[in-house]
Amino acid sequence: MIAKFIKRILRRDPMVKHTQANKTGAPKRIPKKAHHIDPHLLSKNAVKVTQTLQQAGFEAFIVGGAVRDLALGISPKDFDVATNATPDQVQRLFRKARLIGRRFQIVHVTFFGKGHPEIIEVSTFRALLDNAGDHVAESGRILRDNVWGSQGEDAARRDFTINAMYYDPSSETVLDYHGGMADMQKRTLRMIGDPAKRYREDPVRMLRAVRFAAKTGFQLDSATREPIANLGKLLNDVPSARLFDEILKLLMSGYSWAAIQGLKEAGLHHGLLPLLDHILDEGEDSKGANNFVKLALANTDQRIQAGKSVSAGFLFATLLWPDLLKNWKANTAKGMANIPSLHDAMDVTIATQSNGMTIQRRFESDMREIWSMQPRFERRVGRYPYRLIESPRFRAGYDFMLLRCATGELNPAIGQWWTDFIAADPAGQDDLMTSVKSEPGNNPSPTKRRRRRKPKSSLPTESASS
Ligand code: ATP
Ligand code: MG
User: Fold this and answer.
1) Active-site residue flag, 78
2) How far apart are CA 368 and CA 366, in angstroms?
3) Domain 284-436: which CATH class?
4) pTM of the full structure
5) Closest ligand 1 atom, CA of 202?
6) Quick one: which H or E segment has residue 167?
7) pLDDT digits (tens, 9 = 90+) for 96-150
8) CATH topology of domain 1-185
9) 168 annotated active-site
10) Ligand closest to CA 254
11) What are the sequence ranges of the domains in the chain?
């Protein structure tokens, strides 16, 4: 769809095709007929914010990813506004406005309407900092930057040319400081300024490069791509919480599989998530893991592209599953009982993961719940299925189980059984349970299996359904 849209722009508008970044610092003004932004894709609230600021005498524009997406004909998922008003001045103009951030103050303006409230993030133009200032660590990483500047400076601080365009809804004009529109038409992702220096300032930009390339299908410009091979190690210095946020964005981008391939090509996956190392390892041993994760990510991408929600806990549960499965099997091979094996394996898997980028606690409990439900899907007798259905996270556990069936790790008949069971009335559910009772190997619990092996005299015969 993106490709089609770009072709359309190219056909209609050769005018901006050869635009170069403007050396004088003045932006190129791109009129409506040259950018084709569809005003219907704009958030009414974002337009309201720019209008209110403009009426109060300030400059205000929609900026960043929203302009990029609009120019691609995609509906932006959120809208940022940039202005020359200070955060205090912004806050005074709106009823529901909250100052947030310490490192760099911005204002969240909230609108309540039908559905979810919408937050428009309003930031004040930021100043450019040079390396000589005390804002920059020895490595080049920016530490503090609460300094206001001009719009031109604000544009130069942004990461990619296609992320540095400003759209004024009232005149329907795009202000383009770094040739973003031309790069868009060349399907190129280009870092503003000296890429190596920009990556040193903020190594997360390397991950952003990969994410945007996956999302847009654009090529990284060679000067933007080349330094990554040497600088990837700088990601080790980035605080774990920030890495986690960025990886989560990457996984939730709707293009996660492409992005993960991009990480691999850029050599950035090592140490980010230990699990990525072997997911991306193409050896025979990893084939099953690869298939499972690939399917899970394809599934996530599909849901996100269809505008459905995805839980991060579910996503990480799938990414770590191959590892968990390996640990679980190793435990049972050592003679440990099935369920304790699983729980021990969960601890080991999570602890190993924490050596890289820490997965936040709130997702960890979701993951544990989804995982510990898995053996319970195999017990389809007595009260077990009813109890399982009542678990608060049943739906996630069930979806997870279906993924296991789809890769053949679990017998697909079990997945079908559950799908039927959920849809059946009580009589139908009884029939379904009866149908599996006679199946050889329908998982009585390991305790029961052990008991059966004991001499008859000491064992009151127990039906699997009791
Ligand atoms: P998304 O669609 O994922 O939200 P986005 O481009 O809007 O993409 P954000 O993280 O929301 O990404 O950032 C908004 C804008 O802020 C970017 O478009 C870019 O101009 C600027 N920006 C964000 N992160 C950085 C960074 N690390 N370095 C420089 N500029 C950045
Ligand atoms: Mg954004």
Assistant:
1) yes
2) 5
3) mainly alpha
4) 0.79
5) 27
6) strand 165-168
7) 999 998 767 899 999 998 778 999 999 999 887 654 344 555 565 554 555 788 9
8) Beta Polymerase; domain 2 (3.30.460)
9) no
10) 1
11) 1-185, 284-436
